[in-house]
Structure formats: structure tokens, C-alpha cells
Design brief:
88% of the residues lie in helices and 0% in strands. The protein is built from 4 helices and no strands. α3 (34-63) runs antiparallel to α4 (71-103). The longest helix is centred in the last third of the chain and has 33 residues, at 71-103. It is rod-shaped.
């Protein structure tokens, strides 16, 4: 009888602990940390800006056709695309560094 009551008490204690843990993990500040949410919002904004810039560059590329095309114009377009790729790579590197810093 005593052993059965002890076992029941332990199970109840375990269930209460698990319930409290689940409740705590579902809190908004745990499930969606504000710093992480801000970091992801910044990434989303950066991605949207890079997409707009890329679309603008594609519009420029569409206009580069004979007889308006020149070697200088094509090189300028490629240079601008490379610059944009570099900016994007730098932004993502910074994001990853901030993400790693956030986890520490």
C-alpha cells in the first residue's frame, strides 16, 4: 500500500513537472525570443531589398540589346551584379555572426 502510494506520488510529481515545463516552453518569450524575432525581421527586410535590386538589374539587362548594347554597358551591368552579390554575401555573413552570438 505504501509503495503504491509512493509510486503514485512520484508519477504525479513527474506529471506536474512536465506540465510546468511545457507551459514554460510555450511562453511567447521562450517560443519566439524577441532578439531572434528582430534578427529574422532584419534578414527578411534585407532579402526583400536585395530582391528589388536584383529585379532592377534584370530590367537593365533586358534593355541591353542591339543596337543599344555596348561592351562597356555589359561590363558595367556585370560589375553591378557582382557588387550586389558581394553586398548580399556580407549581409548574410553578418546575420550568421549575429545569430551565433545570440545563441552564446
Amino acid at each position: 500500500a505504501w509503495e503504491k502510494a509512493n509510486r503514485s506520488w512520484r508519477v504525479l510529481r513527474k506529471d506536474v513537472c512536465l506540465f510546468n515545463l511545457r507551459t514554460k516552453l510555450q511562453e511567447d518569450r521562450i517560443a519566439n525570443p524577441p532578439l531572434l524575432a528582430d534578427l529574422l525581421a532584419g534578414l527578411r527586410s534585407d532579402q526583400q531589398q536585395f530582391t528589388r535590386k536584383r529585379l532592377d538589374l534584370l530590367e537593365v539587362a533586358k534593355s541591353l540589346r542591339p543596337p543599344d548594347i555596348s561592351l562597356a554597358a555589359a561590363q558595367s551591368w556585370v560589375g553591378e551584379l557582382n557588387r550586389l552579390n558581394g553586398e548580399e554575401e556580407e549581409a548574410y555573413s553578418q546575420f550568421l555572426a549575429e545569430l551565433v552570438e545570440l545563441e552564446e
